[in-house]
Amino acid sequence: MEKTIITIARQYGSGGRTVGKMLAERLDIPYYDREIITMASEDSGVNATLFQDEKKRIDLRALFKGGYQGDQIVSPESAGFTRDDNLFNYQAKIIRRLAEQGSCVIIGRCADHILRTVPGVTRVFVYAPDDFCLREAMKVNSLPEREVIRLIAKTDDYRARYYKYYTGKEWKNARNYDLSLNSAKLGFDGTVEAILAYLKVREQYEPKD
Predict the structure, then answer these.
(1) Which region, left, alpha or beta, applies to residue 187 given φ > 0 means left and ψ of -120 to 50 means alpha?
(2) Mean of the pLDDT values across residues 40-52?
(3) What is the DSSP letter of 49?
(4) How far is it, in rounded angstroms, from Cα 111 to Cα 81?
(5) What is the pTM of this model?
């Protein structure tokens, strides 16, 4: 049976992480989010706090220089061993390994791009209108509303810069994904059902080798 590998990119407050967890439970497959950083830390021997998350700002000077320069991992003896690009490559290595091992749901970290040539991968982008994202973000943040609005904008900006730097593509471009779903219209349960329905149709109509 072909593996089911689902990557989920998401706007802050859209519930993409919740959808991913629900989907993994429905399919009874592993779910990976920040666990990837822990695995990359263990694999490299580098403290997990040094690994770049999607929320960290990408240096604009790097973007002007052409951004990400390649996926080759350098050795611990190298002066560039703990640079962000090398640590990203360790995360990419872990993501590829997880996809090789079996079915799973992977949240963020450019997994859709890293696994773009892997057979059976379904790439999903979850988004929602500003008011919905604000309402959901307010549930998990004890900040004033104006601060949460700023947090949403800041987080999505970081994610977009991160994605652009490491993929050369626009984060919100629907062409990067197999499905772009509005969680405000579908609800979290409906978003999960839409992904499951897509998997079923894809399995039925995808050309066989």
Answers:
(1) left
(2) 72
(3) G
(4) 22
(5) 0.85
